[in-house]
Amino acid sequence: MIEFKNVSKRYDNTPAVNDCSFSIPSHKFCVLIGPSGCGKTTMLRTVNRLVIPNEGAVLIDDTNVADIPVTKLRKKIGYVIQTIGLFPHMTVEKNISVVPKLLKWEKNRISKRVDEMLDLVGLEPKQYKKKRTSELSGGEAQRIGVARALASDPPILLMDEPFGAVDPINREILQQSFLKIQRELKKTILFVTHDMDEALKMADIIAIMKNGELIQFNSPLEILSKPENEFVKSFFGTDRIMKRLSMLKAKDYLQEEPENSPKDQPKITITKDFSLKDALSILFEKNVDSAQFITEKETGFLSMPVIREASGDGYVE
Ligand code: ADP
Questions:
Q1: pTM of the model
Q2: Is the distance from the beta carbon of residue 11 to the nearest atom of ligand 1 less than 6 Å?
Q3: Which domain does 151 fall in, by range?
Q4: Which of 122, 192, 221, 306 fits 40 for a cystine, CB–CB 3.0-4.6 Å?
């Protein structure tokens, strides 16, 4: 677990982070989001002691990071940044081996690990190992950045806008493949972004900051349905309700047939991932108030009131 306890950091008496407290449970993916300059990077860097708070403390599994020797601390933490920070004169293999070498792993173990990491990030080891990082595309270089951060199998990953410089199509591919990796590895992750769609897609928990302060700390669904204030509402945009519906699975909301429902309701076969937003589109498309939905395992009815209820308390504004 990573715990921020009343963390404050000032530069020339101007607060960059002001009295922030929250905890990230082990194996969870926490996205830190907010407008540029709100203190996200400062906060993230307090974890690996690139920034020392003026007040407060950061604890990892109940130990204050200030009490852990910095080299020992950083061996536990993978760090991925937007500008990647790969060594351009080194091959891909050498870049991925940096931390395992520092940890004095055996040569064979390192070589095996490099292959595993390249496989993990979807790059063919034989083809990529000997390439110089200057020969890589932006998306490939980001994958190597992730592979390098994961190479020594650290329990914690800090990621600072890791996909920010990649074009939208490659960003989507990187996000999907990184989520797949996380489902397997279950690291404790703190991930900084200013992209709300990225936050909603990736996070187990979202921490929203503004002007150095923590505004809300909740699951994506909770934030979409119960935004703390106008700032959060506006940050998540006017299609917040549709976003929430797109995150809810239709199969989880199937009901008994409503009383007095018309006899000839449409019957729609859906997959298990069909969302309430998809269901709403179907009701609009068929111009009906309810329909029967059939998945491989279950069957039931969805109606406008059920979808409205599920959309959260923001619906009636
Ligand atoms: P974000 O990551 O949300 O864009 P930062 O944490 O990078 O924000 O910065 C928060 C504030 O602290 C900004 O106003 C920034 O200018 C200031 N700041 C960050 N690092 C330094 C520094 N090393 N020296 C002076 N001011 C800094």
A1: 0.83
A2: yes
A3: 2-243
A4: 192
